[in-house]
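Hey,

The postdoc asked me to send both predictions to you directly instead of through the lab channel. I've kept everything plain text so nothing gets mangled by the mail client. Protein one:
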Amino acid sequence: MKTWQKAACLIAGAGLSFALVAQQPGGTRPGVVVDINPGRIILMDITRAGKRLVTVGERGFTLVSDDEGQNWRAVATPVTRSLTRVAFENDKLGVAVGHGGSVVRTEDGGESWTAVEVEEAVPESLLGVTSLGGGRFLAYGAFGMYFVSTDGGASWQRRTVISEEFENHISQVLAVNGVLWLVAEYGTVARSEDSGETWIQVESPYAGSLFGIVAGRDGALIAFGMRGKIFRSTDNGATWQNIEAGMTTAFNGGTVLSDGRIVLVGNSGLVAESTDNGAAFQVKWSSAGRGFAAVAEVPGGLVVAGESGVKLLDPSTLVSK
């Protein structure tokens, strides 16, 4: 897990500014909280639910924006552990996962959330979730945990990745043209051509942790992670090229913009952009110097989630070092 996100787990609650929320039996909470400062909550992921932006983070809170990140309102979920990732199949159906085996789902675009008990995931951390469409979701995380849902996240079944002995922390599963790509710690890279029923581990370019993977418009795979490492494959993972970024700060998340540019974000305000499908990256930094966990596109710019909550990021304000 990323260094600053580990710290976030330990200091969850620091800097929060929210109205008192009455706890219900079993630790559940009412749906909407109206007074969380979006710049003073640690957030781990951000995605779209149709035109809406949804971000998740500490204490099981989510924030939603219906005006491209200009304003945010908080929505409590029935869990109180940090949520690490969120994925939507469409503008209504979504699933978020997190620490302590937490799984919550929504059928109204994040206006309300329902907890789903996944006993085999407790008490470990789920680190990611992927929507494959048709009500099919994947949830995965610590010690090789990997679960499949075929009913929109209402129930889950555990599956094996690579082998029964596989226990590496899984960071992300990405669907690319009918093939699933998995990245994990110890440089693990694997692919599945049967929707995750079986996995083939491919030769890895790196022995350290990989935190994410994106696919360029030309089909190139871009994997990234610790110590500023970026690797690119143009032959379906058979070989990988090291893309030198010129620094050792970890990359935590990334996205492909509507015009094909690839943007990666990381610790200490790191933002890297590629205009050639990942063959090279220009590295810049946010002057605030606070870590970013995830990034999404909005008209005219970017919105980032991380150590300083969620905020719009004007690329013209980024600086080179």
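Protein two:
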Amino acid sequence: MAPPVINESKPSRHLSAMSGADTGSSNPAPGPIAVAARPTLRNALRDALASWWGKGPADRANQSSDDLAEDRTDMAATRTLMAADRTLMGWVRTSLSLSSFGFTIYKVLQGFAEAGVNLPHGQTPRIVGLFLTGLGTLAMVMGTVEYAQSLRDLRKFMDIRLARPVFIMAMLMSLMGLFLFFSIVSKLF
């Protein structure tokens, strides 16, 4: 007698694989067990970051068009403020370059005069140094005044503190330039 042939195309049904209805039991088949959400350090950090950073565009889903326009105005004022900061930093770089170049020319020409090189005018080192230092100081003061006017105009749209790092640096550079300028002038006369 030949052994029975097993048809592998049909899966065999075992009692453990049957649902409760097939076996006559009233208990449903076991499903995946839901794991209770446990507080973890990762979740706590994510929640803390979300509360500080904000939820992003999801927060704006229920905003009115007036609120969205106000947000856009605030962002435009912020961009304008950052542009004013960059402009003032450009003034600072330019004035620092002019002042340092003026001081360097002053020292180089003074060294030539001490070495015995005949300069067209005896006060040439001081005049050239004074001119470039004065130009750098003027540029710094003009940039600082322009920045202060920009802040005054932006205060109509947003609350801006005057003690901004760029403004403080510009004020220090203006004072240093004025000091350098007047120190050269005092030695001239």
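Summary for protein two, as requested: Residues 65-115 form the longest helix (51 residues).

Thanks,
C.
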